[in-house]
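Incident log entry.

Two folding requests arrived from the same account within the same minute. Monitoring flagged them as a possible duplicate submission, but the sequences differ. Recording both here for audit purposes.

Request one:
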Amino acid sequence: MVMSLYYSCTDYPLLEKPLWTGLSNYTRLLHDHDFLVGLKNTLIYIALLVPLSSGLSVVLAALLNAKGLKGVGFFQSALFLPTLTPLVASSMVWMWMLNGKYGLINRGLAGLGVEGPNWLLDRNWAMPALILIALWSIGQAVLLCFAALKEVPTQLYEAAGIDGMGPVRRFWHVTVPMISPVILFNMITTTIGAFQVFVIPYVIFQKDKGGPGQSGYFYTMCLYDNAFTYQRMGYASAMAWVQLLIVLALTGLMFATSKKLVYYRA
């Protein structure tokens, strides 16, 4: 990390000795079109994925925790298996499923009388497609919420029922507060992972640099291009440090806002 911080203040083309340039790499970021596009797309991706992933994981965990549900082990395995699939392999499968002409998703929509979009070639649909792929792999977050639900005291539900609360109010006023620490953990880890998203968009859009209109071009892809395609290791190191500071700031913001929203029984 110390060497990376040093390189971030140098012009370092890998095959030559680094030349000290001060803060020029950091000031250059403010005028780099690819960097600004990657940062913008990444922040949009985080803003959409984190709430969707957190909310969906809680809902799916609640469904798994429902009384009388048969085959819980099967559904747990079905939700968790996508997290074990190699990212390159899953990217290739999703490229086929999201194909505008022959994809399985558009064929299913056609059967319902709906004309599916050209997911990976339309700049308006590239981001939703990537978010859909990310939501396919929320099994770990679901299982964490499921485990947290098992720890909620049944006496609280009984008391809520005596007070006349229905299922929705019990879920919102009892379940969510009791598992809020796990929800916060999932939000933080999802944010960190989303800011580092690389493999799936890189494999899907590797031939045209982030897809149509660079709508699938993310921060880490820009960092990778500068480091290993253009051999600007000093510039890429500066991007890495900016990425670290942004992630720390977002994590700190979530911790600060969670003081009034997260309930710790201890």
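Request two (distinct sequence, not a duplicate):
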Amino acid sequence: MKDKKWAERRFYEISRYFLREKGNVKSIFIETVSDYHPFTRILRIQYLDGREEKFVIKILKNKRSNSDKSVLDLLHEIAVQQKLKELGFQVRDYLLIETSENNLLGFPFAVGTYLEGVVLNKESPERVSVILPKVLDYLYELHSHTISTSFGYPDWSPKGSGRKIEERFGKFESKYLLADIKRDNIEFTPSEKSILFRAISSLDRAKLFCLCHCDVTLSNIIWNGREVHLIDWSYSHFTEPMFDVAYVIFWLLEFGFIDQAEREIRRSFKKYERLGFDFVPRFLFYLAHKYIEFGRFKGKAYIERGKKLLKAVPSGSLEEILQNCTEIFQNPSN
């Protein structure tokens, strides 16, 4: 509660600071985004001439540890979005960034443009299922324009260059999964640990990578009735496209659209095969990753599904992937 009141005061300070040189303002409103983003707000401005504008306010990490994200994460996101704009994608622009606590307000913050549309976590599962294929098309467009033989964070990111990463891809890509397992005390038997590390070692056979969003949660997808926009690129890096595709398939399976999930897996397999990506062997690893990650707050059933998916890694064929998905998700007790 104390942190919430602290943040509310700061949002009004940021809005006044941002508007100090704007005239003709009739009123301002500060609106919440979601429970998942307590340090992000929408700033809505009404002008005397009847116009209305919206902006996004973010409180960045400071000594109080109250933040939407760290300054480094935001700088990485800005660098990524600059490249996305060059590729023709519509992304959020940041109009004001104060990265130091030595500014007039005494804490780092940012103000960005607002992308019109509906966030998918506010839509019904049926509506989401209609839009998710368009999300996969968006991701394919991104992936197909950024194919690389290097993984990791790109040269133009403050987080460093993929070319300087000395560790194996499997170790690099499984870092967060292993951290989640350790932090949340998720139990693996010796046999399950062996299966887990066999699946991780299979990642090292990857040869091609591309820029991926890496956090395609519903709260990061905006649909404006015509096209999809993705926000929050702070986790984006060069990895296998299955990272993003599996996350979208996860949502179809989560809402029980198993037949549609199968169709989209087949469709994605054919498209990425034409780009040269070896879609089959490791797809189930990325799907298992999401189930184990969501098990932190969804319960043991999700972790168990993740463990079952890991057993089929590496997969031998597309039909093997589909068979495993059908067996695990067709039965509600699994």
